[in-house]
Write a structure and sequence with these properties.
The complex is a heterodimer of chains A (about 600) and B (about 280). Chain A is mainly α. Chain A contains 18 helices and 4 strands. Chain A has a two-stranded antiparallel ribbon. In chain A, strands 3-4 form a two-stranded antiparallel ribbon. In chain A, a hairpin with a 2-residue loop joins strand 3 and strand 4. Chain A starts with a helix and ends in a 77-residue tail after the last helix. The relative contact order of chain A is 0.10. Chain B has about 280 residues and is α+β, with helices and mostly antiparallel strands. Chain B has 4 helices and 10 strands, in the order αααββββββββββα. In chain B, the strands form 2 sheets. In chain B, strands 3-2-1-5-8 form a 5-stranded mixed sheet, with no helix packed on it. A 5-stranded mixed sheet of chain B has the order 4-10-9-6-7. In chain B, a hairpin with a 4-residue loop joins strand 6 and strand 7. In chain B, helix 1 packs antiparallel against helix 2. The longest helix of chain B is centred in the N-terminal third of the chain and has 34 residues. Classes of the chains: A mainly alpha (about 600), B alpha+beta (about 280). The interface between A and B is large, with 129 and 104 residues.
């Protein structure tokens, strides 16, 4: 399958490249993946600092911070944070974390690094397009962050940028040049995602090693493959919507703006429909949630199996449920719009599809639990984060059941209940996926081991920090605390909310500080960590057959050949408690055979 | 070598299991504690009772699953930590078990869909004929209300006619129905009398949210969306804007007064028509 490709790749590996071609403008999928990861980590720092500033305002409204004013003169007045700056923080935090951290780290980072390695390819199908995909990301970052420094500041319309607010420059302070830059940066970043997505799909379909049938793929690859399909089908819709919005702002069109009077002034727009944006935005926006959660689902499945020393439970159901989630994710966008004025019957349809998506999600959860049943668990940091992922996904998934029901959503929509819900199921769970992945594949990426005890401590503080920060937010939502409010003091019924908000802020600061442990561990281990062997976790998948770190071209002279599925852990009769995918069936004297013991179905009962 | 299980593994298993049990316990404890301080405000509308019932059944079901799944996860972690060189079970397929936990949630969710569907259609059935009608309009950053006046009909409006001081609603003088329309800064409603609320916006999207009524309806410029409900308790309530509408979003507070018919009639009779006779 990959023979014509092999020759060029070996050639690549043989002649030495200069530093610049090797590490900066590299065509090697591993370097590109690591570039994506490191840039995402830098963006996570920025997004995290913004979150801390948000919590500072909510926990201590009206307090004076002259030191911060010295750092950010535009954001404060007399030492007190300004409301427009607060909204800019909220908008940029959401945008950065969703598009510039989680999407880029998971798809761009792990997707790039793992796909060729786990399918036994030498590189992506289109290495140049891959490099181009990464190199569109920094310009998008520059465009986005530039919004902070232009007149009017960064946009304050939320990451959802609903028009007319986002369409009319005079409607909000950050709705000027800042909003235009925000829209342009999204166009550039989406282009990067599309190039990446096309590449992933082609690579998985065309470059699998000999013997690597689709049903022998590790679940990580299935997840990345389905994610790439979602990105390819949903992101162009957002691109179109963003360009239409740019036209409304700059060229006087009225796609999303009807006749409105802003500040006493009748605008020249007429005939547009603000709900059209919401439909287009959420047609991307909901698949995007799964773009963030499918890769962690795949990675966590593989990490759970490797550290349970057990095959993943229900592999066919795992693949099927991811496919079902992928398809259903295109049919649920309206659940963001129950109170928007959309026809109630449409709401009923969206409720049905939304609750339907809970079925494959439940199947995955039970399969993870069944994987742990009669396991022999090794509590590596990666495993701890994988177990934490299951907990966060369950908690966040269950609160989704409230929001899926339109009558309950009337009360919860746009309150802190929603903020709590998505920070569990998509933000924290996806972040736990990233951490689990980093702890697990760091040895393969950099050839060194992360510090294990620091990693465990990082898990404990992060897990407790996340529950302490986001769990209480559910109750703010019950109490009717609306989101995206600069302060709550004006509302009599919300007087009692402040102590809880202050407590949440303290928890959030602790959570933020705990992440410094990870950065310290990462930097220290990068240079001084113990050298990693080929297969430190004794895992079955192909990437662990390559050297740590693998050379350009991954496999040296001989490409791997696959003889079994990805989960032959604790195979009875095998000399060790794992059998790599490259070991031929004849090499293992097993009554169960190559594809891993269908014969002993039910032995766990 | 990190490969074979270190001796501390059983102790770690116990600690991680304790963390997961503690998570479930803390979740339950905090929920009980929050009941007294941060909870649904007491319901003050007829359909709100149905929403609350749905809310509580969902809370019981999801709360139960939250506790059970965490208890089971904690048990698995505690029970199945690595022990020396002992091997795990090579067990990865059980069609009947998998079908069970596919179909049981599916049936449960189907029941939930129908329960919610019933409530949703009750909320959205046609308003009773004796319902009063009022218009709510959001603007940066305030709420205004319009009553149709003695003729019971709203006059035509046009954004082109809006004049912030003399004609903030853009009422059309050419329409006789507009002459007696009343525009107010507070919303007054009659207790136990259904009210149809026509929600509109002047500039950007807002959302009309009164938590006690369990009512939230986006106010979208260019559209008039109608919702109806029956307030059941007299008192003064706060309206919040629930859709980000700009820098003053957090100050966009309105007032609803729910009162007896007599008090309402007395208040309404004091209000003057919005359009003063042309000079």
């Amino acid at each position: 399958m990959s023979t014509p490709h092999a020759a060029t790749a070996v050639e690549h590996a043989e002649h030495e490249l200069g530093f610049f071609r090797k590490y900066i403008f590299s065509l090697d999928h591993k370097i590109i993946g690591i570039q994506y990861l490191l840039t995402s980590m830098a963006m996570a720092l920025i997004g995290g600092v913004l979150a801390m500033l948000i919590r500072l305002q909510l926990g201590y409204p009206g307090w004076r911070w002259p030191e911060l004013q010295a750092l950010m003169p535009g954001g404060f007045q007399n030492g007190v944070m300004k409301p427009d700056f607060y909204l800019a923080l909220v908008t940029m935090h959401g945008t950065i974390m969703i598009f510039f951290v989680l999407t880029t780290a998971l798809s761009g980072g792990f997707g790039n690094f793992l796909i060729p390695l786990q399918i036994g390819a030498r590189d992506m199908a289109f290495p140049f397009m891959n490099a181009l995909s990464y190199w569109l990301y920094p310009p998008a970052v520059v465009l986005l962050l530039a919004a902070f420094f232009v007149t009017g500041g960064a946009p304050g319309t939320g990451w959802t940028a609903y028009p007319p607010l986002s369409a009319i420059p005079q409607a909000a302070p950050g709705s000027g040049l800042g909003q235009t830059l925000w829209l342009l940066s999204l166009v550039v970043l989406i282009l990067a995602f599309l190039l990446g997505g096309l590449n992933y799909i082609t690579t998985v379909l065309q470059l699998r090693a000999r013997g690597m049938s689709m049903l022998r793929l590790p679940l990580t690859i299935w997840a990345m493959f389905i994610t790439a399909l979602l990105m390819l089908l949903s992101f162009p819709v957002l691109t179109a919507a963003v360009i239409m919005l740019l036209f409304d702002r700059l060229a006087g069109t009225s796609f999303f703006v009807p006749e409105v009077v802003v500040g006493g002034q009748l605008l020249s727009h007429a005939g547009g429909n603000p709900l059209l944006w919401q439909h287009l935005f959420w047609f991307l926006g909901h698949p995007e949630v799964y773009v963030l959660i499918l890769p962690p689902m795949g990675m966590v499945s593989d990490i759970l199996a490797a550290n349970s020393r057990k095959p993943i439970f229900g592999y066919p159901f795992m693949v099927g449920s991811m496919a079902a989630i992928g398809i259903l994710s295109f049919l649920v966008w309206g659940h963001h719009m129950y109170t928007s004025g959309m026809h109630p019957l449409v709401g009923m349809a969206f409720m049905t599809t939304t609750l339907a998506i809970a079925v494959p999600s439940a199947v995955k959860t039970f399969n993870w639990l069944a994987t742990l049943w009669r396991a022999r668990i090794r509590f590596t940091p990666a495993m701890l984060f994988a177990i934490g992922f299951v907990s966060l996904f369950v908690t966040g998934g269950l609160t989704g059941v409230f929001l899926a029901q339109p009558p309950v959503d009337i009360q919860m929509h746009d309150t802190y209940f929603v903020v709590a819900h998505f920070h569990f199921v998509m933000a924290s769970a996806a972040m736990f996926g990233v951490f689990a992945g980093l702890y697990h594949w760091f040895p393969k990426m950099f050839g060194r081991m992360l510090h294990e005890r620091l990693g465990r401590l990082h898990f404990w503080l992060t897990f407790v920090g996340i529950y302490a920060t986001f769990f209480p937010m559910h109750f703010l939502g019950f109490a009717g605390v609306t989101r995206r409010y600069y302060a709550y003091q004006l509302f009599e019924r919300l007087r009692d909310v402040q102590p809880l908000n202050t407590a949440i802020s303290i928890a959030a600061f602790g959570l933020g500080l705990a992440q410094l442990l990870f950065i310290a561990n990462f930097v220290y281990s990068l240079f001084w960590g113990p050298r990693a062997e080929r297969n430190p976790w004794r895992a079955t998948t192909l990437e662990w057959q390559a050297p740590s770190p693998p050379p350009h071209g991954n496999w040296g002279a001989v490409e791997p050949e696959v003889h079994r599925w990805a989960y032959d852990y604790s195979l009875p009769g095998a000399p060790e408690d794992f059998v790599p995918q490259t070991v031929p069936a004849a090499a293992v004297a097993s009554p169960a055979g190559g594809h891993g013991g269908h014969a002993e179905r039910g032995t766990g009962r | 070598m990190p490969t074979s299980a270190p001796a501390s593994e059983p102790r770690t298993a116990a600690k991680v299991a304790a963390l997961i049990f503690a998570t479930a316990a803390a979740g339950v404890a905090f929920t009980l504690y929050a009941r007294g301080r941060w909870w649904l405000p007491p319901v003050a509308s007829a359909h709100g009772v149905l929403i609350d019932r749905l809310f509580y059944s969902t809370l019981w079901i999801t709360g139960g699953i939250f506790v059970l799944v965490h208890a089971f996860l904690g048990y698995l972690v505690w029970r199945h930590g690595a022990r020396g060189d002992e091997r795990a079970a090579h067990w990865h397929e059980h069609r009947r078990l998998e079908l069970t936990y596919t179909l049981v949630p599916a049936v449960g969710l189907a029941v939930m869909v129908s329960m919610s569907g019933v409530v949703w259609s009750k909320i959205h059935r046609a308003a009773p004929p004796d319902a009063m009608v009022v218009e709510v309009r959001g603007e940066q950053f305030a709420w205004q209300f319009r009553y149709p006046g003695p003729d019971g009909r709203f006059g035509r409006t046009d954004p082109k006619l809006i004049d912030l001081r003399r004609n903030p609603w853009g009422l059309d003088r050419a329409d006789p129905a507009a002459a007696d329309d009343i525009v107010t800064r507070d919303l007054h409603l009659v207790v136990d009398r259904p009210v149809r609320v026509r929600v509109r916006a002047r500039d950007v999207i807002h959302s009309f949210f009164v938590p006690e009524f369990r009512v939230k309806q986006d106010a979208v410029p260019g559209m008039t969306v109608e919702t109806w409900f029956t307030p059941t308790k007299t008192g003064v309530y706060e309206i919040a804007c629930a859709e980000l509408c700009g820098v003053g979003h957090y100050v966009m507070r309105g007032r609803v007064v729910v009162e007896a018919q007599d008090a309402f009639a007395a208040w309404l009779s004091q209000q003057k028509p919005a359009l003063q006779p042309a000079p």
